[in-house]
Structure to design on (66 residues):
């Protein structure tokens, strides 16, 4: 089963890109470019889910406003 997650991507003051996974508290990472950030984010999600077996994710992403 493929799970889908929403992520928020921001640029830090140091120029690094930062991702935060909506619905997975504390699941975030950073990288210098978008390709590396996506790779690291997928890895972070995988590790999070392995550590949190039995976790029921009940999050309804509504949207982002700036």
């Amino acid at each position: 089963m493929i799970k889908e997650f929403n992520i928020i991507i921001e640029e830090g003051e140091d120029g690094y890109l930062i991702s935060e996974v909506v619905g997975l508290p504390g699941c975030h990472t950073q990288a210098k470019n978008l390709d590396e950030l996506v790779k690291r984010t997928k890895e972070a999600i995988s590790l999070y889910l392995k550590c949190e077996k039995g976790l029921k994710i009940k999050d309804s992403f509504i949207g982002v406003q700036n």
Q: What stands out?
A: The beta strands are 7-11, 17-21, 28-31. The longest helix spans residues 34-51. The first strand starts at residue 7 and ends at 11. The chain has a mean pLDDT of 86.
